[in-house]
């Protein structure tokens, strides 16, 4: 009689390195696809009003100085081209007018992204000289063209 010699089966081995690789890929996938939103701690439901003013509508509007890509200065909503000396005199006159009405003058700079930085600094110096303490800059939303 012949007995069959059975070969011993080796126990199946689990390759840990491959499992770790797959797990890392899943974690990276979840991190990339998850949106991280900041949730407010509480929500407010504000009352509605048909006569409500928009934010800042009750305040005096800022003086607007525009600087184009070539470094040209323009003042006001009508965008009149000016020299530095003309801008200095207009800012001083606007500050005196706002002080007479009891409000503080504000300046908003609307500069082209290719405008010379020296012109922006010059406008800031003129604002300091005219004693304008509130200075802001116009920007656009990143998502809008």
Main features:
145 residues, alpha/beta, Nucleotidyltransferase, domain 5, 5-stranded mixed sheet, 3 helices, 5 strands, rod-shaped
Q: What string gives the helices and strands in order?
A: HEEEHEHE
Q: How much helical structure, as a percent, in the residues?
A: 25-40%
Mean pLDDT: 78
CATH architecture of the domain at 63-136: 2-Layer Sandwich
Largest sheet: 5 strands, mixed
Percentage of residues in DSSP E strands: 5-15%
Shape: rod-shaped
Could you characterize what this model shows?
- With 145 residues, this protein is an alpha/beta fold.
- It has a domain at 63-136: Nucleotidyltransferase, domain 5 (2-Layer Sandwich).
- 33% of the residues lie in helices and 14% in strands.
- The protein has 3 helices and 5 strands.
- It has a 5-stranded mixed β-sheet with strand order 3-2-1-4-5, with helices on one face.
- Strand 2 and strand 3 form a beta hairpin.
- The N and C termini lie far apart (90 Å).
- Residues 41-47 have low confidence and may be disordered.
